[in-house]
Amino acid sequence: MFKENTIKLAIAPIAWTNDDMPELGEENTFEQCISEMALAGFIGSEVGNKYPRDTKALKKALALRNLEIASAWFSAFLTTKPLEETVEAFIQHRDFLHEMGAKVIVVSEQGHSIQGLIDVPLFKEKPVFTEEEWNKLTEGLHHLGELAAVKDMNIVYHHHMGTGVQTTKEIEKLMKMTDPQLVSLLFDTGHLVFSGEDPIYVLKKYLPRIKHVHLKDIRRGMVERVKEKDLSFLQAVKEGIFTVPGDGTIEFSGIFKIISSSDYEGWFVVEAEQDPALANPFEYAVKARRYIKEKSGL
């Protein structure tokens, strides 16, 4: 289905240890995490909170397991803080990822975000940007895109539940307001379906701008529970809203077919934050890897 050597498979460490809720998986070590990733058949990883920031140490640990770094999350605060604060942090992040050989930088605007607030209802309190904030976001992302280009890298914007860029309309507005040469898109299946969007529509419309893909499945019956109980994003995660491809309700065959007929080259990253005490990370990594092989041939 896919042209040879165009797609690389990675998995995110968030299934082993959660950045937003460190109590989830606190017993899982960095070494266990990357060893199980490799054993499950993946060749790449994103960066978690237990990963060494010393690039020599990180490179050595990954090389022993034939793993690469695909990318890493960056929190921008372009709508709520002075641009200089985000830029300073971004340059450090960019240089770390460049040293690790990554080509894309995952950026998400966290100004007004409620994704990390444990007791704020996800759907009732979703932030909405003013026009002034949209302009600040656009200008700031252009600046970050220029800084990434200095290192021959791209920023990929991560639409995300609980933020000002979550819905199809918000994604469309961001794409319309930003320069395709400076701002690319991260396509995340789980966040789109959770929000009530059509992932196929977003994929087809923005495929030329998509430079990074997160393969996240969802337990669709949980969405109504989140709405009815006014759960927060973190509460939804704890209760099992997300899972790996092949274990939820998203049918990935059509998604794989569309991408395979395009010019997309880069990473597919399995990302499914769950409570590791309830969903063994290695077991679910193996399940995801087998499903992707079955449905895509990768």
Per the CATH scheme, the topology name is TIM Barrel
Strand and helix order: EHEHEEHEHEHEHHEEHHEHEH
The rounded distance between the terminal residues' Cα atoms is 8 Å
Morphology: globular
Strand content is 15-25%
Structural class: alpha/beta
- Biggest pleated sheet: 9 strands, parallel
* CATH homolog superfamily: Divalent-metal-dependent TIM barrel enzymes
Q: Mean pLDDT, nearest integer?
A: 97
- Identify the strand order in the major beta sheet: 3-2-1-11-8-7-6-5-4
How many β strands by DSSP?
11
Quick description:
Helix content is 40%, strand content 16%.
Written overview of the protein:
The longest helix has 20 residues. The protein has one domain: Divalent-metal-dependent TIM barrel enzymes (TIM Barrel). The chain is globular, with a radius of gyration of 18 Å. It is of the alpha/beta class and 298 residues long. The N and C termini lie close together (8 Å). The model has no long low-confidence stretch (mean pLDDT 97). A nine-stranded parallel sheet has the order 3-2-1-11-8-7-6-5-4. It has a two-stranded antiparallel ribbon with strand order 9-10.
